[in-house]
Amino acid sequence: MGKEIKKTLGKAAKKVFEHTPEPIKDEIKDKVKEKAKEKFVDSVQDKAEEATENLQETTEENAEKFHDKAEEGKEKAQEALLSVRDKISKVVEAGEDFQEKISSTNDDGDDRKIKGVKSIKGYTDMKGASNIKSSTKIKSSNDIKTMGS
């Protein structure tokens, strides 16, 4: 029904336009041109404003994403540096322990020490034939104590 009304109004406007004098037709044409210009300018301005808003929203979203990614990168780098620092401190500690073991003196009686020239036995420290136990010094079954004795 809306289309029929538009058609009827369009036909009526054409007939009225045909029967109007020329000076009025020129004025109507000028007014129609001005209205068309205004509508065109308004539509272009609306599209430009919409594009500006979209650009601003996109810029804000990208800035937010960038800051989030930068923060993530900063945290990852900090975690990596902390783990490297922990590993280096463990290596330093192990090196210090190793240095202590190597540089400690033989007075401690620690068997893990590196033996020096003084620690090597000489020919005087070896047992001779006189130091070997004889058969009389070896214990026999008679020397073993029992519970009752």
Characteristic terms for this protein:
single chain; 149 residues; mainly alpha; 2 helices; rod-shaped
Description:
This is Gas vesicle protein GvpQ. InterPro entries: GvpQ-like. The chain has helices spanning about 1-20, 20-105. It is mainly α and about 150 residues long. The chain starts with a helix and ends in a 46-residue tail after the last helix. The mean pLDDT is about 85.
> How much of the residues is beta strand, in percent?
under 5%
SSE class? mainly alpha
Count of helical segments?
A: 2
Compressed to H and E, one letter per element, the order equals HH
Number of strands: 0
- The parts where pLDDT drops under 50 for at least 5 residues are none
Largest β sheet strand count, sense and barrel closure? none
The rounded Rg comes to 54 Å
Q: Kindly state the percentage of residues in helix.
A: 55-70%
Mean of pLDDT: 83
* N-to-C span: 135 Å
Shape label: rod-shaped
Question: TL;DR of this structure?
Answer:
By secondary structure, this protein is mainly alpha-helical. 67% of the residues lie in helices and 0% in strands.
Topology of helices and strands:
Blueprint: H1 2-19, H2 22-103
